[in-house]
Amino acid sequence: MNKAQFAVVGLGVMGQNLALNIANKGYSVAVYNRTDQRTIDFLNGPAQDKAIIGTYSYEGLAKVLETPRRILLLVKAGPAVDAVIDEIKPYLNPGDILIDGGNSYFEDTERRIKVLDDSGINYIGTGVSGGEEGALHGPSIMPGGDRVAWEAIKDIFMAAAAKAEDGEPCVDYMGPRGAGHYVKMVHNGIEYAIMQLIAEVYDLLRRGLNISAQELGDIFRQWNDGELSSYLVEITAEILKKTDPDTDQPILDVILDEAKQKGTGKWTSQNAFDLGAPTHAINAAVASRIISSMKAARVAASESITGPKPAFSGDVRQLIEAAKEALFASMILAYTQGFGLMRLASQEFDYDLDMRNIAKIWRAGCIIRADMLDDIMRAFERDKDLTNLMLDAYFKDIVVHRQGAIRHVITTAIGMGIPIYAMSATLGYFDSYRTARLPANLTQAQRDYFGAHTYRRLDKEGSFHTDWQS
Ligand code: 2AM
User: Fold this and answer.
1) What's the rounded mean pLDDT across residues 326-344?
2) Which residue minimizes the CA distance to atom 21 of ligand 1?
3) To 5 degrees, how large is the angle CA 115–CA 120–CA 124?
4) What does the pLDDT read at residue 2?
5) Are the C-beta atoms of residues 109 and 181 closer than 8 Å to each other?
6) Cβ–Cβ under 8 Å, residues 148 and 179
7) Which segments of the chain belong to CATH 3.40.50.720?
8) Which residues lie across from 9 on neighbouring strands?
9) CB 68 within 8 A of CB 95
10) Does residue 370 surpass a pLDDT of 90?
11) pLDDT reading at 170 higher than 80
């Protein structure tokens, strides 16, 4: 019997679709799932007539695989990954490759690699983005870990990955240890930011301007035909135009306004705080999801805590145009913050991340794919050490010229009492970054006043303390 070239452990939707994707590219795939019935259903269903074989023990899985074994784990992030590694390890040999394709926290990946080091088993932690559809037709894949192991899985991953318009596969080696999962984490952080920015623009136009969901769907569709062209803007247009079959209302009007989260956005912010990276848009998006989940409290408060009424008396067309420009510029600033964070992380963790390659593999397949990533890739081609995207002439020109639109959109929303926190935070990042002298001099004085923390001066070197009360 010919041995299988690749294995997938964990047959949730992502696991099933990746197994199908890889089999469709001409590789033979063995699958295993903790609960046998799921394997049976998969084999009798979507995997019928494919080069996919089912196995019902880790021992059996190990036996049917060619060596070195290449095994992709797609189980729930967290303790399940450790459990599977422990159970499968006795059947593996040095040189075999375990690949974790779940949304694992990058520090867990670093720890697992350390633990497996003595066994000779190679470990790859990889981000996979694109949702269920992406997994089946081509996701963006962000692998990190052992470089030799990467070379051994490269052909399969390149075949399975999405292809950008220039034909380049959306996968590349990100860096050692947890680098792949780190990049995926930041991808998700940027995703949170962009989703929140879009949500705020939707809220302003829908509630503030009373534009119907249908009309707004057309507006987003038009935007998606231009420079805003991106997966998230595209699906927003489709969502806005969707009618609920039960009520005949726009489906958005019957969906509960409580955003859930699995943690990758929060991890991004937490890590950004640890590293000292300004990620205003991501932080604001996480905070916005949190306050959205306090539905009962908000409903109660809405009855007693008053504010301005969302009533707009200005030029509607002008505001819609400004919203488009503001969304574009603030999306650029969200990417700017994400790439800035990865730059710091690369130094802190010795990941040696290549920002150009990250932009390159985000151009298709993943949730934050957008035409502007092609330009981001080019900016890092012009200068691979670019410290901030806004310092690239092309992007500087865009944000400088669109800042008026952001200011107009934000002040309009604020005047009407419509929360626009992520976009405001993004502008705060922009304004802080371009301000030579911030009020942190006062912060330093206060710290010295109450805690004798000392301060530095503009006019001479050294550390100073003032006797404030004398
Ligand atoms: P299950 O079908 O047996 O629940 C996504 O949830 C995938 O993760 C499923 O295939 C699920 O297997 C698997 N999974 C979750 N926890 C697991 C564990 N502790 N060990 C093995 N697989 C697990």
Assistant:
1) 98
2) 34
3) 70
4) 87
5) yes
6) no
7) 6-177
8) 32, 73
9) yes
10) yes
11) yes
Q: Is there a catalytic annotation at residue 321? A: no
pLDDT at 270: 98
Shortest-distance Cα residue to atom 16 of ligand 1: 80
What dotted CATH number matches 6-177? Answer: 3.40.50.720
Q: If you search the block for the tokens 């019997």, which residue do you land on?
A: 1
Tokens of 203: 């809220």
Distance (Å, rounded) from C-alpha 198 to C-alpha 384?
30
Query: What global pTM score does this model have?
Result: 0.97
Strands 122-129, 140-145: pairing kind:
antiparallel
Q: How many residues does the chain have?
A: 470
Mean pLDDT, to the nearest integer, of 268-293?
Answer: 98
- What pLDDT is stored for residue 287 in this prediction? 98
Both tokens of 41, joined, read: 């259903």
Q: Given the structure tokens 């692998």, which residue do they identify?
A: 143
Tokens 């023990």, located at residue? 57
Model confidence over 59-77: pLDDT tens digits?
999 999 999 999 999 999 9
**Token code pair at residue 456:** 């530095």
- Cβ atoms of 7 and 101 closer than 8 Å: no
Give me the chain's average pLDDT, please: 97
User: How far is ligand 1, taken at its centre, from the CA of residue 57, in Å?
Assistant: 14
- Select from 2.60.120.10, 1.10.1040.10, 1.20.1250.20, 3.30.160.20 the CATH code of 184-432: 1.10.1040.10
Does the pLDDT at position 1 exceed 80? no
Q: Which amino acid is at 23?
A: A
Bridge partner list, 72: 8, 99
In this prediction, residue 309 carries a pLDDT of: 87
Ligand 1 atom with the smallest distance to the CA of 80 is 19
Tell me which residue has its CA closest to atom 10 in ligand 1: 10
